[in-house]
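Weekly structure sync - notes
Attendees: PM, LS, DV (DV joined late)
Agenda: review two folding runs queued last week.

Item 1: First target. Sequence and structure tokens pasted below for the record.
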Amino acid sequence: MTKCTKCAPERIPLKLLPERYREAVRSVIEQILSHYRSTIAFAVIGSVAEGTYGVHSDVDLLWIMRGRLPRRYWRIIELPKDPRVELVALPKRSIEEHFQHATTMAHAIQRSIVLYDPCGYLASLKQRELGLPDHEWMVHWFSHWHRFYRWGLEMLRRQRRHHRKYCRRGRKCYCDVDDTLARVAVNFAILLVECYGIVPTHKRALWRAFRTITRSQRWRRAFRMALRIHREERWIALNKAELIASLAKWLRRRL
């Protein structure tokens, strides 16, 4: 069977990306295309796509496929050593749901850099009109993260008990908790700024929007910390976790 040159990996327009990400992105795309014929498209979303990336920004590579998400795909795909490359894998059905509800992801896709789209699926998505995320999706997303919120608070309470029992004053404390509360705070903040009619599709946009809804230096400092920890650090020192937990509680009350 003759290979279609239109769909060949070498035709991927990597020059649209910053040079430091090109080879890593090419490697992932080529590996996926060689193993999964159900692949529909690839695109870069987030700060790199919108030209607001910084020195420490990661690149979010969206992979859209037919059917269900392949199980254990990470065992076949050798992800690049650069930790700033994040693979976001979504089946076509999920993409359609995102556009039906005009979610944050749908807005990010419309602002994306298309790298592989032989059937024109992403091109058609970019032509659709999007409003603000609808109420049904926002309620669903709040409920989803509220479960993690309760779980994160429970882990924090357990660590507090451990700290009081085993950590002595005057000695260095190594107590920490995982990043659940930071992820909760970031997603609660996304929902809150969307209530004000702003759809943030990357961290810098979210930070700018957050500053418009509160002048509190305490909450701004806590949120900046949560943004830095989100998807970058796995564990948080106990004192930082306490501050982020307070931020998450404040955001929950506002919602």
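Item 2: Second target, run right after the first with the same settings.
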Amino acid sequence: MLIVEDERRIARLIELELVHEGFSVMLAGDGITGERMAREQEVDLILLDWMLPGMDGIAVCQAIRKKKNVPIILLTAKDTTSDKVAGLDAGADDYITKPFETEELLARIRAALRKGRHREELRIADLLIFPEERRAFRAQQEVELTTREFDLLHFLAKNVDKVVSRDAILETVWGYDFEGETNVVDVYIRYVRLKVDEPFTTPLIHTIRGVGYVLRSS
């Protein structure tokens, strides 16, 4: 677990409580260090202060969200509705205002970890898809997809290593009553490839001539 908090006393108190509960804890005292540690280290959850030197918590949260989908709980004295909305919109999973009771913080941590464990995910090579949140990551970098592009990628991922025909894609992603051009599948496959394959070394989406497409795990 990573605590990003510039007030040493608060950080130390939280660390002691978490260690007592059996967690392994890392500390960062500023936003830049916290963002780097979150990017480079494997952590189960991040406790992130809002008011940080170097890089504030909102910016840190947004930067982490571009790379990882780890649960983030914001810790802050800001308690207005607009502040909470800003924090959650930045990608935080939860928001707790200072001062807080240790029992409440621990309960929120347990809830966030449970949610993370039960989160449905599809993992194909270095591609990670969260269907419920409609988010996709490749090599720990978030891939920005439109609604239709995500639906197409999700369908291919559910049929990983299976060749799916253009008709099957059209019926599932666009619907049985779609009356547009039939080459729309090829067009959107190209769109998805531009985002999911081209920036990376190994392509995952392959064309099977005369049949359709396949998302390969290796």
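Discussion on item 2: The first helix runs from residue 8 to 20.
Action: LS to circulate a short write-up before next sync.
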